[in-house]
Fold this protein.
Amino acid sequence: MTLRRNRTMTLAGAALATTLTLAACGGGDSGGGESEGDSGEAAAGGAEGTITMGFIPSWTDGLSTAYLLEDQLTKLGYEVEMEELTEAALLYTGLAEGDVDMYPSAWPEVTHAQYMEEYGDQIEDLGAYYDNAKLTFAVPSYTEIDSIAELTGNADMFNGQIIGIEPGAGLTAATQDSVMPEYELEGDYELVTSSTSAMLTELESAINDEEDIVVTLWQPFWANSAFDVKTLEDPEGALGEAEALHFLGTEGFSEEFPEAAELIAGIQLDDEEYGALEDMVVNEYGEGQYEEAVDAFLEEYPDAFDTIVTEEG
């Protein structure tokens, strides 16, 4: 295998590994036969060591980049263990306590800023890979409003509900703490939280029935193109500015895994590349075929990013 450098940018993900779930915010056995604190040791893993990747499967930016990194790090000689979690708070706590080695798609600048304030001195920023991430509100394209400001006074159109995602998501906090008070939506609207998949089910059902619905979304996210929706303008900037997505590691990651850190630092993606990766992983191939999705992506974008790893036969 070789580590070769290119000048263009994009993503890749890979083979479906055994997925486990962290039992709590920190501590405990990961289920992979390793005790706390030795997840990076090579004894039971690849020649270069074992890297535990924590991600939230329903947040497909992280799903896509997790399998990109699984593919690339495996080619470098690492074993990658995939830990499926349900909340961003668990990921940041896991990174800080060393139960998770990497978070492959963090929003630390704005959306997850509170977690970085709490845990930042125990977390290593391994680099930003995408620079145009945004939190959004969206409605079906046929809905007769174009701005979050127009939600005010129109609660009856939406049954007084804003359909959100996970309660612990940064998008949920921004909606509750910024958008609703800024646009005076409190009292007229209830923010309904559950999960990303539940939100998408509600969105699909409403569109099929040609009903009005307002949901919390973000970019990049495949749902923006898969569903007939439009992003609402945010004239007060309550959802914040565009931010970069980062790879985060537990403190000391680059010292323990120097080749991995070098590879990760070289990954930078534009809109086309990011969109192609996510579409292949989520839509064209889907669960159980992540390895095939990554192979297809790398075939279409053979010069994906600066530190792409290839295997020589």
Q: What stands out?
A: The two ends are 8 Å apart (CA to CA). Residues 60-76 form the longest helix (17 residues). The CA atoms of residues 51 and 80 lie 5 Å apart.
